[in-house]
Amino acid sequence: MILLFGSINLLLTFSGCELFQRDVISSPADFESYFSKPYLILDSTTLETNPAIFKLDENRFFYVRFNYENEIINRKIPFESNSLSLGYELFELDDGTLLDISKIQSAELFYYDMVNSKSEKMCTIKWVLKSYPQMKEYLLSFLENEEFDLYTIQTKTSYLFNILHYKEGIKVDKSALRSFLRTL
Fold this sequence. Notes:
Elements lengths: L8 E4 L11 E2 L2 H7 L4 E2 L4 E5 L10 E9 L2 E6 L2 E2 L2 E4 L17 E10 L4 E8 L2 E4 H9 L9 H18 L3 E2 L1 H9 L2
Parallel strand pairs: 2-4, 3-12
Antiparallel strand pairs: 1-11, 4-8, 5-6, 5-9, 7-8, 9-10
């Protein structure tokens, strides 16, 4: 899930993950695995790619192709070194407005190599939109009360992580979850 703070709607993306966030993506099959099950990303996350397999520079990069209201929109994924940055900027248009995720008919991840004039599809990605209140209500539904202090944030983070991971089948970054809980 991706939450865009400071906006009326926060972007939440569900994507899948058999890999842990620190694992390195080395093939299209790794991307398929990563985006196959629900994976909760709060705010933004980085995804490490194998530089020997996926060289990243001005001429080689990843992008997401959205089918948005029957129009194709390609969005280059920001990167640093061999780390992709998956966040709300993928949904931001050139004029600063955000795509309405409910109007995205499909999204696919590609690797583009301008040097060899080759574009290779890695996988399909599903996106879901929720508002901050909806996400807050969803997370709080697993908790007994809404009182938070430093100690309860730590214990509730662990508790929520276990519920999301084991009961709901969603992988989640604990530090991002902890940061989100601090906003409640």
